[in-house]
Amino acid sequence: MSATSEARILALWEAAADRPPLLRTLALAAAGAQQADVADLTIGARDRHLLALRQECFGPTLACLVDCPSCGTELEMELSIADLAVEDVDDDREAVHLGDIKIEFRAITSRDLLAIAGSSRAARRDLIARCVTTSLPDDTQSLPESVLDQMSAALAALDPQADIHVEADCAVCDHRWNAPFDIAGYLWSEVNAEASASSTTYTNWPWSTAGRRTTCWLSAPRVAADISRWRHHERLRRQIARPTSAPADPPATAVAVRALAPWQQRIAAAGNLHHLVGARA
């Protein structure tokens, strides 16, 4: 990996490491989009920026692991960015009818997901309510479950890039299925692993007594990179030393596609965001 690429990945890590998962995803997407605020983009538009960032940093080929849901065998897969790119729909708005009432709504954004973070079992209803763009006689709390189901299906169709699945088949038991793929979780696992690997060679401050070396001839970018790596190592060391009461990320799902790091480190990707729409009532 070139010094430029390594510095880029360290910068991504520093921008995102201390954030909760969704804000971390937005930090990565902002870097890919080269704009500060990506929270109002649809989930699919945000994820396209993540795909572009992944290609820029690591190339177009993705080495993956997935567990067969039938026999439990761990399988290796190879995907490409092109496999994961979905053509955008022409419109990001849809409508369903409840009797004579037409309910119009838009695609989900990250800001919507942030707004319902920590919500109760009413998360799906609250999320859909944020997406409704027409005035209703009553609030969405009175909508029947059948209408919410219609709206959930329509929301998924509005933004297909937000809910990516890849075809997988098991060479052991011949089971075939569609495995969910989350580019946000996958990309972060790669950034985190690469940054962690680069930090292992920077165990001391470059000019400390214990690790003294001649650096006066280095260019300013090289010195800046050394400082950045040292800062990264120190933050990692403090994080490892600091006890945590709960994991920072959601637990990995058994059938989700996850990253295969260059040194075979198994890091599971986070679950697909759109499952919130379809799974919670």
Automatic annotation (TrEMBL):
InterPro entries: Baseplate_phage_T4-like. Pfam families: T4_baseplate. This is Phage baseplate protein.
